[in-house]
Write a structure and sequence with these properties.
three-stranded antiparallel β-sheet, 2 domains, about 55% helix
Length: about 300
């Protein structure tokens, strides 16, 4: 069966995942990078389209990206696995579209990678970080404190928080919540705690209008100094600056999200509830946090049980 040619097949597939799966521009760029590398590998073997690819080609490519023998950079295990997943998706799509009869990638599985435990702060570290965000009397301090309180209160991704509009907030006393839009624009409503409500109310009443004065009437909750929507990158800078002032090291854009999930599970929350709050499509993704809490339980057991340590 004749294919469309690798370049056209790639463009068609990327258009499909962009529209049908609602992937972010960052994710699409990663897909294009990984699949372009695979396309170049197939071309080097004399394959002109996906219909020409063999199972041995896919398996050899999976090894090549790990070792860097295809002329590209050797990828870490997680990145190599991600690339193989992308290749499998492309071939599966080719079969569904009728470009090929068989799927040569069906039996090529991504190598399993060790579970990476998320970095979670202690409750004391989180408190110090949040307190440091509100240092100063300016409107930026009100905004920064409100942003970080919301991130920790809801487990929102930084991009979800900066994407909020004012109408997405409900600050009704004792019933406050926020409407978050996650990956694929999937919506979820997450409760807001008292500290986050107080910080948001202070920002909206005393800070946001001052920032909005220099803009063009954007509905965004969090604004930059020009009155426009705060970017995801700026949200990360705010978090990093607060962490530095608080003396908290090794923070990432997901630090408060990881801490939110870990603290909920340690407090006895059901994993399915945490899954819903985080917006994970599968509970398997959420289960990595149970590894964190098991480690904490082990430490408590070892230090508290009179017969936990000792010779056996």
């Amino acid at each position: 069966m004749a294919g469309l040619g690798l370049e056209r097949e790639l463009d068609t597939y990327l258009a499909h995942v962009t529209v049908e799966r609602g992937l972010s521009s960052h994710t699409i760029a990663a897909y294009r990078r990984d699949l372009s590398r695979y396309g170049a590998y197939l071309t080097s073997l004399g394959r002109g389209s996906l219909s020409d690819a063999k199972g041995a080609d896919v398996a050899a490519f999976a090894q090549a990206v790990s070792a860097g023998t295809d002329g590209g950079t050797a990828l870490a295990p997680a990145s190599a696995a991600r690339t193989v997943v992308a290749v499998r998706g492309w071939h599966k799509f080719a079969v569904a579209e009728g470009w090929t009869l068989d799927d040569p990638a069906a039996d090529v599985k991504p190598r399993s990678t060790p579970a990476r435990l998320p970095k979670a702060l202690s409750q004391e570290q989180v408190s110090a970080l949040l307190e440091s965000a509100g240092v100063g009397d300016g409107v930026a301090a009100l905004r920064d404190r409100a942003l970080l309180e919301l991130l920790y209160a809801t487990g929102a991704r930084v991009s979800e928080a900066t994407g909020l509009d004012v109408d997405d907030l409900d600050l009704t006393p004792h019933a406050a919540s926020v409407l978050l839009r996650g990956k694929g624009r999937k919506e979820r409503v997450v409760p807001l705690g008292a500290y986050a409500v107080e910080a948001l109310d202070a920002y909206l009443v005393r800070g946001r209008h001052a920032l909005a004065a220099g803009g063009r009437g954007t509905p965004a909750v969090f604004l930059n100094t020009r009155g426009g929507r705060l970017s995801r990158q700026s949200g990360w800078v705010i978090l990093k600056a607060a962490a530095e002032r608080a003396g908290v090291e090794n923070v990432s854009p997901h630090t408060l999200r990881h801490s939110f999930a870990t603290h909920l599970l340690r407090g006895g929350a059901d994993i399915r509830v945490v899954q819903e709050l985080l917006g994970h499509a599968s509970v398997t993704t959420t289960q990595v946090y149970t590894l964190v809490t098991r480690d904490a339980l082990r430490e408590v057991y070892a230090s508290a049980h009179p017969r936990a340590l000792g010779d056996v």
